[in-house]
Structures are given as C-alpha cells and as structure tokens.
Amino acid sequence: MTQQRSAVLSGLTATASVFDEYAKLDSFYTDSDLLPPLIRSSYNAVLGYVAYFLTDAKMNGRTSVLIDVGTASATLIEMALELFPDAQCIGVEPSEQMTLFARKKFDSGLGYGNVSILQGTAQELPEMVSEGSASVVTMHNAAHYLSDEDLSRAIGHFRSVSAESGGLVMTLFKPDYDFRSLLQANIGYMEDTSRRWLAMQLNPSREIISLVNAVSDVVSRVQRGQLDFAGFTDRLNGLLSLTGKDHESALPVRLIRSAINALPLEQQLTPNIYRHAVERLQEMLQPYYQIKEFRRNHYSGTQHFVVGVAL
User: Fold this and answer.
1) How far apart are CA 158 and CA 166, in angstroms?
2) What is the largest CA-CA distance in the chain?
3) 280-309: string of b/e by CB count within 10 Å (b at 16+)?
C-alpha cells in the first residue's frame, strides 16, 4: 500500500466505521420506507441530472454508465435502475458493511448483472473503473467527508473515468451547515409519516393512536427548541418503553427506533465534515469540468448542488 493511499484510508476510517454501524440497523439507509422526504427529494434532484446524462449517452450510441462514489446502500443506483434498467451501474463505498449490504440488494437473482458494488474510495477510482467509461459520476451527500486536498484529487479522478461530455453531480454541505437546523428541518417527517400510516389502518389500537399523538408532541418540542438532542432521545426511548412488543413492526415504532439509532451516529459524523467554500469548489472543478449549475440552497439551504460537464 502506498503512503498516499494509507493516509487517505486512515482519514476515512472514522466515517466508514459509522456507516458500518448504519448497515446493521433499521434506518433510512437500509429501508427506503424510512427515508425522510427531504432526503428523498435530494435523491430525486440528483436523479434528474443522472437521467439526462444517461439518456444523452444512449441517444448518441454509447453505453449508459453511472458511477456512484460513496454509494452507501446504493439507493441512488436503485432509483436509477427503475428508469434505466439496462444502464451499467458501479457503486464505490469505503464502508465494508455498507458494501456488503448494498451487494445483497443486487445478488437476489432478479437479474441485476449490470450492477457492481466495489469497496474503495474516490482516490482508488482509476484502479477500479476504466478510463473514459462513465456517462455520469455522482457523489451524493458524501464529498464533504473529503478534505480540500482529497476532494481536489478526487475530482481529477472523476474526470479521468468520465466519457467525453460526461457529467458530474455532487451535493455537499456548505460552510454554514448546522446539524441542529438540519434536524429541525427533517424531524417533521416522523409526525407526518406516522399520521399518514395511522390514517390507513382499519382498526388501530389505542396504544398506537396514543403513540402517534406523543410523537407529534415530541416533534413540536424539538422544532420549538424546547428539547435538546439528549432530551429528544430520552423522550423517544420513553415512548418505546410504553409500547408493546406486538407493535414492533408498526411504522411509527420503526421511525422512532430509526431516529434513536441515527442521532448518535449523525453526531459522530459531524466532526468529520469538511466545509468547502464556493470559490474553492469552483477552483477545483474548473480544470476538469464546465460548471452548468451551482445551487447554494440545496437540502433546506445546507448544501451545495453542483453539476458539471467534462471538458
């Protein structure tokens, strides 16, 4: 192993270990039913540009190839395959457990022979993917885990594996990103999803009705700033302790457990986030990509959304 690769892998160890834990839990990474609407809309925004570049490749007689770097549980690849079942898809993920989890999705014998999930990093991309092969490279909600130097190097690698006029789509946190604000923006989905689920039940128990009402109260308190992270988790644990085991599979219960599982992991990830300024990002991209779009208000105003076309 080279000294450079060793340093990169060392820097990603803390982040990869958190995603190793996520892969073992019932969460929005492992079940799309638990995906908050804000995160789902972010995927959809990326998917719109993925569709453009894959369609362009197909119309020009080229193989449609998506490379998703930092793929986690390969949710973006799943969504892309719903629109482009014949596309060649490659997911690259540093976490061993997430890599194994994502592979299981496509090893089910359902005909996903056009998908490869590889364990590795952005820095190893040229060793894993053929030069000039990608119709589009994506790095959704992951580029902020790379330092300035590593992200700059990674963008060069993205270009080396991109086809002529191939695309790059990245989302990453802005310098003013604040975890509490993002939690408050996301937390409402627990109440909304629970109430929609409850409305579809033919004869819900009083216990479940009370649970959903209690979730609404906890969410409201978080949104008003009356509960900190510890208080939020304590309240949710208290609700679970009052809920019978026969309701374990009920969606409101799963949403509560998912939030309890995710919050400490997200807090572990926050110190690993690099906050890249607009000017520096543009400087990194310009040697390799023509910037077609650069939004600064993505993901409830916390992220950059970057689209480039290979030069």
Assistant:
1) 10
2) 62
3) ebeebbeebbeeeeeeeebbeebbbbbbbb
Residues 155 and 290 in one domain: yes
Q: What pLDDT was estimated at residue 179?
A: 84
Rounded CA-CA distance 44/40 in Å is 6
Query: Domain check: are 254 and 206 in the same one?
Result: yes
Same domain, 130 and 8: yes
Angle between helices 188-199 and 206-223 (to 10 degrees): 160
- Residue 156 burial (CB count, 10 A): 15
pTM of the model: 0.92
Q: How far apart are CA 233 and CA 222, in angstroms?
A: 11
Residue 263 and residue 229 in contact, taking contact as beta carbons nearer than 8 Å: yes
Q: Is 194 exposed, middle or buried (0-12, 13-18, 19+ CB in 10 A)?
A: buried
Identity of the amino acid at 40? R
Distance from C-alpha of 190 to C-alpha of 184, rounded to nearest angstrom: 11
Confidence of residue 7 (pLDDT cuts 50, 70, 90): very low
pLDDT of residue 265: 93
* Statement to judge: residues 96 and 232 lie in one domain: no
Interior angle at CA 272, CA 5 and CA 236, nearest 5: 135
Backbone angles phi, psi at 42, to 5 degrees: -65, -45
Contact assessment for residue 311 and residue 290, using Cβ atoms and an 8 Å cutoff = yes
- Give the range of the structural domain holding residue 195, as residue numbers without chain letter: 179-270
CATH code for the domain of 48:
3.40.50.150
Total domains present in the chain: 2
E strand segments, the chain: 65-69, 88-93, 115-119, 134-140, 162-173, 289-297, 303-310
